Amino acid sequence: MATSNKPLWLILAPVIFTLLWAGGYSVAKLGLQFAEPMTLLSLRFGAVILLLMPLALIFRPKFPKRLINWMHLMVVGTLMQAVYFGGCWWAFKTGVSAGVLAIFMALQPILVAILAPYLASEHVSWKRWIGLLLGLGGVVVVIVARSDIEPPTLFGIIFSIIGLVGMTGGVIYEKRFGISYHPIVSNLVQYAAGLAIVLPLAYFSETMEVDWNPTFMAALGYLVIGNSILAISLLLAMIRAGEVARVSSLLFLVPPLAALFGWFLLGEEMPIVAWGGMAITAIGVTLATRKKASQT
User: Fold this and answer.
1) What whole-number distance in Å separates Cα of residue 206 and Cα of residue 203?
2) What is the pTM of this model?
3) Rounded mean pLDDT of 12-21?
């Protein structure tokens, strides 16, 4: 019987990444009980930068030499860090549950699959449009199913959409203009760009008061080390090792896992009908992003 030559960490990496990423939704909402959204984001980004700077001095990775390449990294950082996380965390502050926000973000692969071909002047298949409709239908089912428990607010939906647009825009921009750099370089520049946006927002729109209790510090540590360092590093390592397909398949588990974490950490209920909505969205994402055998 043939044995796998993959190291154990690479075999476990997709599962660890998915758990870390799904847990980030509930942990972020937990942290927002003790700090305002932009203040917490500023602390998160600042802490990540402080951790990465010594690594940059030790390993001395190559930074961009052209201004345009610096700009590309900063645009992706603004979209992925400031817009995506800013929209998501403001959505949390308005009462959106971890499971509902995760199901919103599950639409991102569908939007990328539909919008990217337009940017390349390619035909978008009917399967992708049906996938989008199914995905949207699943989101609606989840929101309606939870309306008796926690009615959605207009601002919550708007901020969720803003987060989705930020994530989708960042992925598409990276596909179009991205250049491969060392993970320390990419993360350092992108988190710095995000901090340059969220810190002034925190200063001018929030009190910037923080309740420095053990729960908050544990949540911040998870967001900095678990989400921003470990999860992203695992994702980049899996991409380099050709494990993208396994990651993509496990990402379907993020909404239900986020809902479970929300129930365990925050007491958020998810009705049975809502689980069906998550399944509908997963089917839609699969249909919209699946490639033909000849394209795989």
Assistant:
1) 6
2) 0.85
3) 87
